[in-house]
């Protein structure tokens, strides 16, 4: 558990944008591992299995949430953010910008850049074809660069 907690939590946080929800997702993932981990055929694939399980739980919770909320998930994500919250550190700025990237692209980018997974591994975690992974990463990079450039322009206007 100690070996994978940080990676799972970071992935969960990148998906949920909430510390509490990320912790809940991570805990639920470990609960599922305790219940069904014996089904894992190759212990070397534990991290991939856990990331896939966390992603599935996230999607399942989101579907459940959409059924019971009046405001749709997309509407909630469209809320503007306060540019004064943009961090001065480049890494924090990038992580902030990741929050505003389409969820499908964000998951692929996080697994690629932060978890350092190969396209094939990302395809297995997200249960999508490798070509779709490539497309999502390319589109996500494009969105991320636009957001980062906008953040830099806003930062320069505040400083100047």
Layout of helices and strands:
Blueprint: H1 5-16, H2 19-36, H3 46-68, H4 73-77, H5 90-98, H6 103-114, H7 119-126, H8 130-159
Helix pairs in contact: 1-2, 1-3, 1-6, 2-3, 3-7, 5-8, 6-8, 7-8
Model description:
- With 160 residues, this protein is mostly helical.
- It folds into two domains: 1-79, Rna Polymerase Sigma Factor, Chain: A (Orthogonal Bundle), CATH 1.10.1740; 82-160, Orthogonal Bundle (Arc Repressor Mutant, subunit A), CATH 1.10.10.
- It contains eight helices and no strands.
- Helix 1 (5-16) packs antiparallel against helix 6 (103-114).
- Residues 70-89 have low confidence and may be disordered.
DSSP summary: helix tally = 8
| Computed CA radius of gyration, to the nearest angstrom | 17 Å
Number of strands: 0
CATH architecture of the largest domain: Orthogonal Bundle
| Count of all domains | 2
Largest sheet: none
Q: What would a concise description of this structure say?
A:
With 160 residues, this protein is mostly helical.
């Amino acid at each position: 558990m100690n070996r994978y907690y940080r990676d799972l939590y970071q992935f969960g946080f990148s998906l949920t944008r909430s510390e509490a929800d990320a912790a809940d997702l991570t805990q639920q993932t470990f609960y599922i591992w305790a219940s069904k981990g014996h089904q894992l055929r190759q212990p070397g694939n534990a991290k991939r299995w856990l990331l896939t399980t966390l992603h599935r739980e996230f999607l399942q919770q989101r579907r459940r949430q959409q059924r019971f909320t009046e405001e749709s998930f997309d509407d909630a994500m469209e809320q503007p953010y306060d540019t004064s919250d943009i961090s001065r550190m480049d890494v924090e700025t990038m992580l902030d910008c990741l929050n505003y990237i389409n969820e499908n692209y964000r998951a692929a980018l996080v697994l690629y850049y932060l978890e350092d997974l190969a396209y094939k591994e990302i395809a297995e975690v997200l249960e999508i074809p490798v070509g779709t992974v490539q497309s999502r990463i390319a589109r996500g990079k494009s969105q991320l660069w636009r957001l980062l450039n906008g953040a830099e322009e806003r930062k320069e206007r505040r400083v100047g």
